[in-house]
Amino acid sequence: MFRGLSGIVYKELLQARRDPATLVLALAIPVIQLTIFGFAIHTEIRDIQAVVVDRANVRVGREFLQALEATDTFRIVGHAADREEAMALLREGRVQVAVFLPDDLAERLLARETAAVQFLIDGSDSNMAMQAQAAAMGTAVSFSARFGSVAPPPIEARPRLLYNPDGRSEAFFVPGLLGIILQLVTTTLTAFAIVRERERGTLEQLMVTPVSRLALTLGKILPSILVGAAATVLALLAMVHVFEVGIRGGLGLLAALTGLFLFTSLAIGLLISAIARSQLQALMMTLLLMLPSVLLSGFMFPRDAMPTPIRELTWLIPATYFIEIMRGVVLRAASARELLRFIAPLFALGVAFYAVAALRFRKYVA
Amino acid sequence: MTLSPAPPHPKDEAVRVSGLSRRFGHLLAVDSVDFEIGRTSIFGLLGPNGSGKSTIIRMLCGLLRPTSGEARVLGIDVARDPESVRRRIGYMSQRFSLYDELTGLENLTFFGMAYGLKGGALARRRGEVIEIVGMKGYETRRAGALSGGWKQRLALACAILHEPEILFLDEPTAGIDPVARRSLWNLLFEMAAKGTTLLVTTHYMDEAERCDHLAYLYLSKLLAWGSPTELKAREDVTPKGMKRVEIRHKDVVGLLRLLQGSEGVREATIFGENVHALVDDGVDLALPEGAEARTVTPSLEDVFVTLTRRASGV
Ligand SMILES: Nc1ncnc2c1ncn2[C@@H]1O[C@H](COP(=O)(O)OP(=O)(O)O)[C@@H](O)[C@H]1O
Ligand SMILES: [Mg+2]
After folding, report:
1. Same domain, yes or no, for B188 and B277?
2. Is the Cβ pair B1, A210 closer than 8 Å?
């Protein structure tokens, strides 16, 4: 039954050793990724970015804000002059919570009336929104206790969820998932399209024709763009009709930015195909890039909860920007200008990947 | 783009290679090689595996950059202007490299488009090359399902779609049966007769005999080049004071041993039922009963065996 088994194993081991690139990929991926993700991923939510509108600016107000920060749940990243400015920061995705202290805070406390502190919470991430809500209420209760047991309580938190008032997790996951799936499809398609030709020797036959390199790479990319665009439309339809996550922002903007993300994913695919010597290597590299896109992009786990060096690294992942963009356009109806700080780097990454791929490609063939 | 070949400049040879070298890391795959190929000839590039034949062809097609030296094809420096060269040459690589999942016709259409053929012109030319390579009736099969000989015909058809002036064929007959080999060579002769210059690599001696000119590569170096007649007449193959004899005997192995131990025998090699030996003039060979010896002109194989032995210092 097992006749020849040792021979096959012997041969497979030898072959694996003769293909060091693939072997290194196979051995290094688990260790590196496990280490990074093990450190990076914390589901416990801390440091939710908050902006404060505190026009009264009295001592008791500042003490309340300190109490808020002391919970570790919130991190106050700035002060806004008024409601408009705070709302803009929420829509841009710079903060997830806006805290409004009442203008007459001191007067109300003196008059022994309840002062209501309003919390506007970005409800996109329902899990985060829940924790923010709980922490807001808890802080208000424990802060009130400093004044002794008085009724009515001197300070009360009034949280309100924006964008996803029902706290549905689909609203949070589906737009991001769409980005992840698009990236997987387009990167893989492009990477394999060229590596397959190289592996089979047809690339060389193509290279002796007068077909230009631009025509070759574009010709390879265009069908992938078509497939990617069709996949996007289907995925968006499913998002709206199956998961009932409506698109609040502009469709044109969504289409344009999705196109930009497709371009970046394709450029990554092209880069992989310029480096990988075999389809197996291409597959491994695609996976190598896929995992951070899933785990570090903020798709599943909040980036705010990651250690600082890793949080900075997540800015190298195109999916990070696209997921921010998707949530911004779909849930918060953000405008292009409000999302510019995600759009510009995504574009830059795409161009950089494409340029490196094109250079690499030329070098190999010549 | 236009597909009509530029008017030939008779003064330009088809290929001129001078001091051509290519290094892969520590390995010198091609070591300062020089040769020329005239127009409308069949030029054979011979040499054992790994001697650098494919590397030379790939440099001539602009797929690899020479490390040093120069390759001119149709008077154009390939490294400087590979695009102009590519329009005018055809290349059939050592490995079957068409699309297995496409039919012959679809492969032809694709490569036709890659060479800028369109519409009626493409359809016409496709029909012509199917006719030329004689694969009518097979063109609708998937390329991957064709047998070796038909695959090579299809690959040849794809390589000549754009009416190249020079065809580079890298071991076109490797791995196909003798009948298919013969008919492929007949095709090549026809093409040469119609004015195409062919460069063919091979390690079959009978194929070498059919070439107008030959270059012999050994360990990355060019050992000799010229017409078969010139090569056989080379002084270093049959030096002065020696002669080449063919000895026929029923026990060739025994005869070979005997000759290798004899005084005045420089070289002895089995050729089928004969032994070819390079013998000093005036030596009287003590031959066994029934052996017949006669003086012959060297075969190409003699030439290459002798040159190879000398180059490797045996
Ligand atoms: N792309 C390459 N990278 C590294 N070594 C190569 C490459 N191509 C060929 N070689 C080496 O160069 C030598 C000559 O190869 P090649 O030209 O294919 O020989 P031939 O066609 O005569 O069999 C061989 O030793 C081969 O391993
Ligand atoms: Mg070869």
Report:
1. no
2. yes
Structural domain of B248: 238-297
Pick the ligand that lies closest to the CA of residue B67.
Answer: 1
Task: Indicate whether residue B29 lines ligand 1 (CB < 6 A).
Answer: yes
Element holding A154 (H helix, E strand): none
pLDDT in tens, A201-231: 888 888 888 887 778 777 887 888 888 888 8
Residue B68 lies in a domain: yes
A152 touches chain B (CB under 8 A): no
Task: Indicate the pairing of strand B76-77 with strand B68-73.
Answer: antiparallel
Q: What is the mean pLDDT of chain B?
A: 89
Q: For chain B, what is the domain count?
A: 2
CB atoms within 10 A of CB A78: 13
| Chain A residues near residue B95 by CB distance under 8 angstroms | 201
**What ipTM, to 2 d.p.?**
0.78
Question: Distance between CA atoms of A298 and A279, rounded to whole angstroms?
Answer: 29
If asked whether residues B201 and B143 sit together in one domain, one would say yes
Does residue B149 sit in the same domain as residue B101? yes
- CA atoms in the 13 A half-sphere facing the CB of B128: 12
pLDDT digits (tens, 9 = 90+) for A234-273: 888 888 888 888 888 888 999 999 999 999 998 899 889 8
The CATH number of whichever domain residue B259 belongs to comes to 3.30.70
Domain boundary among B230, B260, B282: B230
Q: Which of A5-9, A173-177, B29-33 has the lowest mean pLDDT?
A: A5-9
CB–CB contacts below 8 A, A to B = 43
A207 chain-B contacts, CB cut-off 8 A: 63
B35 and B77 part of one domain: yes
Q: Are residues B278 and B213 in the same domain?
A: no
Report how far residue B134's alpha carbon sits from residue B164's, in angstroms, rounded to the nearest whole number: 19
Which pLDDT band holds residue A362 (cuts at 50, 70, 90)? Answer: low
* Residue B7 pLDDT > 80: no
What pTM was computed for the model?
0.75
| Ligand 1 in reach of B52 Cβ (< 6 A) | yes
Can you name the residues that pair with A115 across neighbouring β-strands?
A: A155
Q: What separation in Å is there between the alpha carbon of B27 and the centre of ligand 1?
A: 9
CATH H-level superfamily of A48-162:
abc type-2 transporter like domain (3.40.1710.10)
Average pLDDT over residues A308-330: 89
> Is B156 part of any domain?
yes
For the segment B218-238, the average pLDDT, to the nearest whole number, is: 90
**Same structural domain for residues B63 and B30?**
yes
Residue B226 lies in a domain: yes
Q: For residues B222 and B215, what is the distance between their CA atoms, to the nearest angstrom?
A: 7
Q: How far is the CA of B221 from the centre of ligand 1 (A)?
A: 13
- Comparing CB atoms, the residue among A201, A211, A366 nearest residue B97 is A201
**pLDDT at residue number A360:** 77
Q: How far is B115 from chain A (nearest CA, A)?
A: 6
> Does B93 touch chain A if contact means CB atoms closer than 8 Å?
yes
Residue with token string 């405008």: A335
| Locus of tokens 């289409």 | A255
What does the domain layout of chain A look like in residue ranges? 48-162, 169-360
Using only C-alpha atoms, chain A has a radius of gyration, in whole angstroms, of: 26
Give the model's pLDDT for residue B162. 92
Residue A366 Cα to ligand 1 middle (Å): 16
Higher pLDDT, B186 or B4: B186
Q: Is the peptide bond before B239 cis (omega within 30 degrees of 0)?
A: no
Contacts of B89 in chain A (CB under 8 A): 208
Q: What percent of chain A clears pLDDT 70, i.e. is strictly above it?
A: 97
Residues B36 and B167 occupy one common structural domain = yes
Q: What CATH number does residue B150 fall under?
A: 3.40.50.300
